Amino acid sequence: AQSVTQPDIHITVSEGASLELRCNYSYGATPYLFWYVQSPGQGLQLLLKYFSGDTLVQGIKGFEAEFKRSQSSFNLRKPSVHWSDAAEYFCAVGGDTGGFKTIFGAGTRLFVKA
Amino acid sequence: NAGVTQTPKFQVLKTGQSMTLQCAQDMNHEYMSWYRQDPGMGLRLIHYSVGAGITDQGEVPNGYNVSRSTTEDFPLRLLSAAPSQTSVYFCASRRDRTPYEQYFGPGTRLTVT
């Protein structure tokens, strides 16, 4: 079955500290992987995506993610967190099975302390 | 481009009432979807459409109807609202069926009492 697991419901980091949000997926074919961010009261915005090629992908707002096929993971990282990064982050997987539907994880809420 | 627009932003319904959530996009995208977002559950797909006149069920379709008469519009109808349908509803579109990124509307917060 296709699924996405984000093990951390919420994470708190200090401003300026590094960040890693975990994402594991289960998918029966070549996965297309996404990270979205949702600020309070807003819709989802795409941070970055992986389709193929270089397994380290760069996104907007200084985020990057690394695809590790052997671990079925697509973790999101940022070297130095800013207060404005406080939001909810969703990992998602899609592909050429299941009617091209996108499966979302439950989300990780990031809190940033001064 | 306005992108994906949704109306209304907020709505309160009584149990048994019906209503339609509106969604429109101006990007000429073929693929449109409706999701509901509930705490701790991420986004769950309600219905989706791969083009005008073509719709299909997602993960949680019960209690909802959709139609797609034009490329631009994809309304979601609640036939007889229930408290379990209290949620935030997002409409999304993408270029076509291939899994490119989706563009999301700002959401509709629905409360059913």
Q: Determine the number of helices of chain B (DSSP H or I, runs of at least 4 residues).
A: 0
What distance separates the N and C termini of chain B?
36 Å
* Helix residue percentage of chain A: under 10%
Unreliable segments of 5+ consecutive residues of chain B: none
What does this structure look like?
The complex is a heterodimer of chains A (114) and B (113). Chain A is 0% helix and 51% strand. Chain A contains no helices and twelve strands. In chain A, β7 and β8 form a beta hairpin. The mean pLDDT of chain A is 91. Chain B has 113 residues and is mainly β. Chain B contains no helices and eleven strands. Chain B has strands at 4-7, 10-13, 19-25, 31-37, 43-51, 54-57, 64-66, 76-78, 87-94, 103-104, 108-112. In chain B, a hairpin with a 5-residue loop joins β4 (31-37) and β5. Chain B starts with a strand and ends with a strand. The relative contact order of chain B is 0.33. The chains are: A mainly beta (114), B mainly beta (113). The A-B interface holds A 4, 9, 32, 34, 36, 41-46, 49, 90, 94-96, 99-102, 104-107 and B 4, 31, 33, 35, 40-45, 48, 50, 56, 58, 90, 92, 97-99, 101-102, 104-107.
Features:
heterodimer, A: 114 residues, mainly beta, 6-stranded mixed beta sheet, 4-stranded antiparallel beta sheet, 12 strands, B: 113 residues, 7-stranded mixed beta sheet, 11 strands, 0% helix, 50% strand
